Amino acid sequence: MIIRKAKLDEVEKLIDIFGEKYYRYSGLKDLGLLYDPEQTKKYFTTLMRMNVCIMIVLENESRFLGVIGAILSPWMCNMKQIILTEVFWWIDKNARGNGVARKMITALIHEGKKVGVTHLSLSTMPKREEALKRFYRSLGFNRTDSLFTKEV
What we know:
Layout: E1 2-5, H1 11-26, H2 37-49, E2 53-60, E3 63-75, E4 78-91, H3 100-114, E5 117-121, H4 129-138
Helix pairs in contact: 1-2
């Protein structure tokens, strides 16, 4: 298995794993947050062309088994502190273990540092919150925020 930065010409493969794996598992549909593959393709393509996102993939024999997608932005409007905010991540159940998630986050940090990132922010969904809190803390992360969502 290889962990590396995704390329612009791989957007279709990113959409496959995002829509078929992450979105279905996330429970976001139950909150009224809908998935549209065409809009996702436009969004991913735009972000990658503008170099304002980093997507790390876990690949085995040209097949994506995992992805972490994150967006670059200034922290509190301070251009001296660029934060990389994870928007989604998914690792296929059969590919989990052996430190794969840790390695993918390490790759995300490595790629972020190349473009001036000073901080990385990771999120969690309620169904995985306790396990991911322990995992994130083991990597040196501190809790900074909680999100609550409402359809308006």
